[in-house]
């Protein structure tokens, strides 16, 4: 059997490899670096200010051999086109030469950089250029440089980055959409109240004997509602952007009375009666006042809406009582209730069974309750109405 000599095995590997390999002679550059160092000159700084010297050294680098695959990479038919001065066989390599020079002058052990290589037909390929840099000047006589074509890989990476950006944009847009929808949802109630109060003021003024006292009271109320709309926009945005909460100690009587006040119009439309009840010894709440109002008004609006077309008793109870973990507020109605399999689903965003519902009310309630460090859940047997429970921390 024919034995392959180690030398011929290496030559086979050299030419058979699917990567481009160049052998280059960098001795003149190595000597120049040594000479500059011996003269106490920093080689990198020196060459940065002496472009002529850089070009001269560049021309001294000789390409002594390339493997067969290099011809494929460069689109060149003949090896002789690549043998000779690096500056001539690879035009436009001056910039990469400066990088090589700096790596050698620093004493780096590896050179690894991305470069663009121009093929004979003028097309450009993205390549990774690598070499192990010898530490002794003699090693520079035969420097092995590997060149890997990464054009396809780079294109894939670009596509991946572009796809990631597209996903990011879509996520931002949908998050923005949610914020916008939530704000639109929450300003509805205060804006309707502004209109109601402003209309009332007009009616007082247009009487044969205008009642300016009543008109003024209605305008003051309208201003209050407009300020509430502004706060609601501010606190809804804060809620959805994870801004730190602003808890204050709240009297449960006030919290409950204010919420009832805000839904007067809807209660009238539903012809529902509202009962308020605060048990003795109910401590003060520790929560963001605007967000507490958002929770309670959403629950009261839902209760009123559940009663609009309801045959039978139309009652809502809004209660507050002490609880081991804080203050428990309950909104119970005498409507049709919620089937057991939907008790969790009703809190999901965009879940709605109402023809004109968006399905955001309870999702906002849950986010707001949890932002206070609290909890919200619903109970109630079908037919006996729904009861929403909100547990909020108590002030110390
Ligand atoms: N008190 C209630 N009685 C019966 N069903 C209720 C009650 N409250 C909520 N639900 C159910 O939960 C669903 C979701 O309520 P949610 O407040 O999140 O949205 P919505 O009221 O439908 O619309 P909107 O976004 O305008 O508030 C309602 O569509 C309804 O099916
Ligand atoms: Mg609702």
Automatic annotation (TrEMBL):
Record-level Gene Ontology MF annotations: kinase activity
Keywords from the named record: ATP-binding, Kinase, Nucleotide-binding, Phosphoprotein, Transferase, Two-component regulatory system
Catalyzed reactions per annotation: ATP + protein L-histidine = ADP + protein N-phospho-L-histidine
Segments forming domain Histidine kinase: 182-396
EC number, UniProt record: 2.7.13.3
InterPro entries: HATPase_dom, His_kinase_dom, HisK_dim/P_dom
Pfam families assigned: HATPase_c
Name the UniProt record assigns to this protein: histidine kinase
Residue ranges the record marks as coiled coil: none
Ranges annotated as spanning the membrane: none
Name of the top EC class for this enzyme: transferase
């Amino acid at each position: 059997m024919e034995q392959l000599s180690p030398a011929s095995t290496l030559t086979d590997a050299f030419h058979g490899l699917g990567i481009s390999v160049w052998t280059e002679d960098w001795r003149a550059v190595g000597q120049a670096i040594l000479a500059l160092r011996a003269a106490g000159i920093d080689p990198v700084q020196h060459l940065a200010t002496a472009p002529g010297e850089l070009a001269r050294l560049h021309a001294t680098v000789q390409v002594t051999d390339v493997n067969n695959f290099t011809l494929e990479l460069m689109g060149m038919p003949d090896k002789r086109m690549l043998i000779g001065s690096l500056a001539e066989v690879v035009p436009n390599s001056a910039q990469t030469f400066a990088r090589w020079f700096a790596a050698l002058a620093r004493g780096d052990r590896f050179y690894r950089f991305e470069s663009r290589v121009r093929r004979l037909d003028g097309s450009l390929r993205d390549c990774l250029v690598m070499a192990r840099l010898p530490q002794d000047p003699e090693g520079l006589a035969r420097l092995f440089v590997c060149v890997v074509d990464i054009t396809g890989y780079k294109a894939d990476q670009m596509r991946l980055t572009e796809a990631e950006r597209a996903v990011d944009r879509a996520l931002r847009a949908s998050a923005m959409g949610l914020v916008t929808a939530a704000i639109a949802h929450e300003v509805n109630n205060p804006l309707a109240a502004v209109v109601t109060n402003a209309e009332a003021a007009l009616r007082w003024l247009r009487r044969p004997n205008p009642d300016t006292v009543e008109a003024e009271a209605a305008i003051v109320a309208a201003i209050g509602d407009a300020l509430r709309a502004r706060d609601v926009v501010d606190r809804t945005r804060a809620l959805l952007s994870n801004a730190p909460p602003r808890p204050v100690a709240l009297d449960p009587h006030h919290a409950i009375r204010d919420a009832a006040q805000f839904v007067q119009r809807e209660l009238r439309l539903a012809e529902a009666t509202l009962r308020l009840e605060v048990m003795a010894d109910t401590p003060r709440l520790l929560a963001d006042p605007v967000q507490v109002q958002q929770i309670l008004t959403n629950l009261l609006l839902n209760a009123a809406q559940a009663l609009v077309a309801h045959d039978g008793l139309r009652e809502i109870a809004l209660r507050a009582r002490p609880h081991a973990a804080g203050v428990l507020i309950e909104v119970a109605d005498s409507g049709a209730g919620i089937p057991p399999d939907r008790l969790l689903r009703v809190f999901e965003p965009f879940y709605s069974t109402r023809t004109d519902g968006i399905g955001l009310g309870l999702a906002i309630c849950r986010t707001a309750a949890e932002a206070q460090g609290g909890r919200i859940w619903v109970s109630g047997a079908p037919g006996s109405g729904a009861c929403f429970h909100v547990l909020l921390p108590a002030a110390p």
